[in-house]
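Hey, I'm writing a tutorial for new members on how sequence and structure tokens pair up, and I'd like a real worked example in the thread rather than a made-up one. If someone can provide the structure for the chain below, I'll link this post from the tutorial.
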Amino acid sequence: MAITSSIANFRSNFQGGTRPNRFLVTGGIGSTAIGDSGFLIKATTLPASTNGVIPVPYRGRVLKIPGDRMFAEWAITIIDDADESTDLRGLFTTWSNDVNAHVANTTSDPNMTETMTLWHVSMLSQKDDSPIRTINLHNCWPIEVAGVDLSYDTADSITEFSVNLAYDFWTEDSATDSL
């Protein structure tokens, strides 16, 4: 069977694709619930995972056996909002301090029940903003709340900061799961 390729054939099979600027991130910042509307994350990625390899030598060859799964840290870039009631940087630094206090070197939550939270990263449909795919990050907590660059030279921009989060594992929900 011959496969024919033409722009018309491609167009008839193309469903519009997904857009990387259509996403929503929701989850609590420590014990502070943010709600279903999410917050001002400018950029992130769908997190990666990697299967480790266990090499098993056999007669001059190496048999590769699947090993443990590793989950990479998750980085987000946040727009620093001027609204003092939702001081996102303050919420993240408080969360980080709850995990390990800056001065006392102690945690406010020894069982990690309030400092580890569930986050959701959803890719959205460009038609109706319904979730196409949602990644659920289980037991998130901040590893790093990055500094904020301040400069008299900077004009016509909004302040941003980055946060790196650790999590135990992720699961995925897809719009096709219900089919």
